[in-house]
């Protein structure tokens, strides 16, 4: 009994063999094209996945690189700030020193001014005292000469006689 689904083998003619061979070739070509399409699609998918992973990895590398650069820049900025802070402190100390020196010079100048003013006022007081003394001497000389002239005038007026003692002499303000 023959098995189901199987045909008995009958020899094929050359045309049939050629057709069968062509069909096999076409099927193989179809399979090769299908394999090629599958392989091409697989490679395209793999390329897209690699490009995606490459972009992600590049992003990660850039992020890490930026972090490293930030740390380096932060260290540089901290050093710059420290240097600038020290420079600023040095400049402030220098200016404080100049201010103290100027304040000391000002204090000395005020002391010199006060001393010069006291000396000037003392000299002015001396000159005023000298002038008063001179004026007193001139006034005394004036009074002596005035008395002498007054006596001489009275002598000439009364002709050599002195005025009576009961008559008051003329007041000096009238002369």
Automatic annotation (TrEMBL):
UniProt GO BP: axonemal dynein complex assembly; cilium-dependent cell motility; regulation of cilium movement
Entry function: Component of the nexin-dynein regulatory complex (N-DRC), a key regulator of ciliary/flagellar motility which maintains the alignment and integrity of the distal axoneme and regulates microtubule sliding in motile axonemes. Plays a critical role in the assembly of N-DRC and also stabilizes the assembly of multiple inner dynein arms and radial spokes. Coassembles with DRC1 to form a central scaffold needed for assembly of the N-DRC and its attachment to the outer doublet microtubules.
Subcellular location: Cytoplasm, Cytoskeleton, Flagellum axoneme; Cytoplasm, Cytoskeleton, Flagellum basal body
Keyword Ribosomal protein included in the entry's annotation: no
Quaternary structure, from the entry: Component of the nexin-dynein regulatory complex (N-DRC). Interacts with DRC1.
Residues in Dynein regulatory complex protein 1/2 N-terminal domain copies: 25-124
GO cellular component: a single term: axonemal dynein complex
Protein name: Dynein regulatory complex subunit 2
